[in-house]
Sequence to fold (417 residues):
Amino acid sequence: MDKLVIRGGKRLKGSVTVSGSKNAALPIMAATLLAPGEHILRNVPHLRDVSTMGRLIANLGAGFLLEKKKAILDCSEIKHYEAPYDLVSTMRASVLVLGPLVSRLGKAKVSLPGGCAIGARPINLHLMGLEKMGATITLDSGYVIAKAKKLKGASIYFDIPTVTGTENIMMAAVLAEGRTLIENAAREPEVVDLANALISMGAKIKGAGESVIEVDGVKKLKPLRHAVIPDRIETGTFMAIAGITGGDITIKNCRVEHLDAVVNKLKDTGMEFRQVPRGVRVIGPERLKAVSTTTMPYPGFPTDMQAQLMAMMCRAEGASVISEKIFENRFMHVAELKRMGADITIEGGIATIKGVKKLTGAPLMATDLRASASLIVAALAAEGETSVKRIYHLDRGYERIEEKLKSLGADITREKE
Ligand code: EPZ
Fold:
């Protein structure tokens, strides 16, 4: 296993280009199962999760090739309908093949994803939606088995605006008979990108990005040609790095408008944002001012940026209160940040951070994707050397992170554990 070794304390300067969005690429790759033929998806990031999704789709009978950010998926011969435990257990987003498989083959057998470090993360809302569309759902030794001769349009209300739940039902609805309404739908940009990819295949979808999405089923779809949107969480992570190191970073090929809640919050810390062609220049102050926030579904402050903001607040001037409302256990980074000298107390889902003048490097352990990102953010501003072990968590969502950071002047190396 690899670890990253960082010697912090430098202001990072220069420009970096963000990769395509992991959380848009994954559902769109699953959507290719809906149409026979050769699909071409561009701006795909080279990440572990993308390779895992590619392997899963290939297991179902498709051809999959990823070269130079272009994914070619040939879904002419989809004959298997099982997503096995060994793949699903390494990537929860595997559940996204459920809707497309029931739609394409009339059946799907997908391992229940099980919990993960940040919470139980059930999929009851995905299954409720499919049942309303006429699927029979049975659970058998850790697998969900969904069957339907032909899915029918239905009105589906989500108690929680689930991102992958909205994506699964949208994909189940595009070839269903009649109209499907998804109410209290997730509004994330990745949901919109999936809708645009499906529309490029011939689907009839209205309202993606709003709370009510309307899908009129069509007879068949054609292979997609689509480019994935830039990764807004990678963009936000580089903003956090500019802020905490007092740096000056130009982030290229990003969609700043996908991060309004984050940019507004970071401006309150004293950071400066300047528009540049197809990107943004971000300048950090001498010392950040403390700010507070609560994570909410889009367009609120994203839970995927909570850990990175917390790392910034560890060295800010003043006290910050961060409330995590989306997942029940998304504070795994707190113990590691405290080993660096951070002053953080947790009460239920609320963390109070009292900014300290300096953080000191320490040996750390990554636990989940965004927690490991927050440790990198803190390490870049800490005095001395930090090593972050189990960096495979980070590789799931950040493409070549150490190369990008080196190009900004960071003293960082990847080493064998
Ligand atoms: C997506 O996960 C993202 N993953 C997550 O990003 C992100 O943190 C999350 O949305 C919230 O924005 C992908 O898009 C692949 P949810 P998802 O369903 O869809 C509860 C990352 O870092 N819920 O919106 O699994 C659930 O427990 C990852 O890239 C149910 O109760 O999240 C959670 O508390 C981490 N029943 C809340 O809803 C359900 O059937 C939001 O979950 C579904 C969800």
Q: What stands out?
A: The mean pLDDT is 96.
